[in-house]
Amino acid sequence: MLRRSAQFFVLILIAALSLLAWSPSADTRQIRVIGPSMAPTLLGDHDAWLCAECRFPFATGAESVEIGEHPAVCPNCGRFQPEEAQPQRKPGDQLLIDMLEARAGKPMLRWETIVFRCPESAEQHKAEPHCIKRVVGLPGETVELRGGDVWINGALARKTLAQQQTMAMVVHDSRFVPNAMRGTPLRWKGAEANTGWLAGEAGSFTFSGTSPRRRLGSSPGHPLEVDWLEYTHWRRSPEDPTRFEPAAIMDDYAYNRGESRRLHRLNDLMLRGSIKAFGPGMLAFRGSVDGHTYDVLLEPQHGRGRMLCDGVPVDGVNFDMKRPLLASSSQVEFSLVDHQVLLVIDGRLLVSHACPAEKISEKSVAADIAPPFAIGASDLSVTITSLTLLRDVYYIAPAEAKAVTLGQEEYYVLGDNSPLSADSRTGWPGPGLAARQILGTLQGP
Ligand SMILES: [Zn+2]
């Protein structure tokens, strides 16, 4: 009898939990996004395109652009979409908002997305009194935007990899291969004429190293003896749209279509791919930031790794898993966002290095057309699929760039679509958003 009632109570409990999970709650509310200020993270009314050249799906804002005035440009391959192309008009994203009461007085966190009552002076929001932005400055902090990054009390505000991922935009996804017959150059290529890297199906790459193992130099002027697969960013020549020229990666937004402004060169990039590697040799991930070259060197068979900066080993940046890595296809993320180097394999953080202050440059560095990323291999069999290059948001500083100190009940908030967002930088009575205006936070990451 006792056992039966225990079973009965377990059943009741399961039913109650299910009800809680499925019933609409007073703690959440559904909203629809209007406007471009959080694009491409969150979309307002938009046109959904499939690139005529590479089939990459992308969106352009449908609210602020005279259709037909400016062509839509594929962010993945640079193709101007033909006039006859018919994008699909779609309504803004539906989001679930955790209402503020549900947080029981917990303060907002940096990089969190919030919904709030728009400040009264935000003229364009008269019809729609709610705004959605990302928190970048917390009460009492001094906030400055420099070099596209957020500086808090004089120190760089760095994001975790998970935070970077919520804001990252695709620069190039190798799965969407442009039509080489039209002369669109490939972005990833072996650096040497006799390279061991081969481009395969659906944007995959393979390498098989047959050369005897060579000593790997690690001193300046002693190049790594690996075979590099390099990324080159191509831009259509303004004079002749059938020609391409190598270019730096800039902070343009395909979403904004016709918007015309000065672009900024990006330092904050991330590489993601599925990688399988087998053999006694070395796999190298190379990226450059602030004019410095960082190499993470990995011995997959031993699960060991270390990092060089400009060819010199960086003290304390090494790992030894004592078991093989990448023996089966693994998700690899190599990030140079916010002046830090991160290497993550299957969710495990193996390298985390904040670039020291003396190596941070807030100005664009010359020679910026050098490949931002390369993957090198020697004496390995390597397969790479779904290789994707992403970029961080570049926060454009207000015209009168200066540090702003927030009050004790104020937040500094910015839109991800930095060129078009009205936010703490512009148009409000002051830069701070009063905490009492905040209604809730976006559910999820
Ligand atoms: Zn394309």
Quick overview of this protein structure:
With 445 residues, the chain is mostly beta strands. Helix content is 6%, strand content 37%. The radius of gyration is 24 Å and the shape is globular.
Give an overview of the whole structure.
With 445 residues, the protein is mainly beta. It has 2 domains: 94-159 and 395-442, Umud Fragment, subunit A (Ribbon), CATH 2.10.109; 169-391, Exo-inulinase, domain 1 (Jelly Rolls), CATH 2.60.120. Helix content is 6%, strand content 37%. Strands 11, 13, 14, 18, 23, 24, 25 and 27 form an 8-stranded antiparallel sheet that branches. The chain has a 7-stranded antiparallel sheet with strand order 1-5-31-6-7-29-30, with no helix packed on it. It has a 7-stranded antiparallel sheet with strand order 12-15-26-19-20-21-22, with no helix packed on it. Bound molecules: zinc ion (ZN). Zinc ion (ZN) is lined by residues 51, 53-54, 56, 74, 76-77, 79.
> What is the CATH class name of the largest domain?
Mainly Beta
Corresponding CATH superfamily of the largest domain: Exo-inulinase, domain 1
Helix content: under 10%
What is the residue-mean pLDDT, rounded to a whole number?
84
The whole-angstrom Rg is: 24 Å
Please state roughly what percent of the residues sit in beta strands, choosing from under 5%, 5-15%, 15-25%, 25-35%, 35-45% or over 45%.
Answer: 35-45%
Computed structural class? mainly beta
The largest sheet is: 8 strands, antiparallel
Shape: globular
CATH topology of the largest domain: Jelly Rolls
Unreliable segments (pLDDT under 50, ≥5 consecutive)? 1-24, 212-222
CATH architecture of the largest domain: Sandwich
Number of folding domains?
2
Distance between the termini: 46 Å
| Small molecules in complex | zinc ion
Per DSSP, the total helix count is 2
